[in-house]
């Protein structure tokens, strides 16, 4: 199976302030505004749910389209 990378970017007023990178497995703050959310989402299980989405949704659909 091929490697799948999932990026989810969160923006406000056209500026990216936070992103999730499945290669890292956690949220990263891109600005000071995103620091509290990154800390919260990395500790409350949100990052864990994103990792599950990569395996259950992204990889599954990749295999369908490539199969």
UniProtKB/TrEMBL annotation:
GO biological process: antigen processing and presentation; immune response
InterPro entries in the record: MHC_I/II-like_Ag-recog, MHC_II_a/b_N, MHC_II_b_N
UniProt entry tagged with the keyword Transferase: no
Domain (MHC class II beta chain N-terminal) ranges: 1-66
Cellular component annotations (GO), alphabetically ordered: MHC class II protein complex
A Pfam family annotated for this UniProt entry: MHC_II_beta
UniProt key word DNA damage: no
Keyword vocabulary terms for this entry: Glycoprotein
Top-level lineage group: Eukaryota
Protein's UniProt name: MHC class II antigen
Source species: Lissotriton vulgaris (Smooth newt)
Gene behind this protein: Limv-DNB
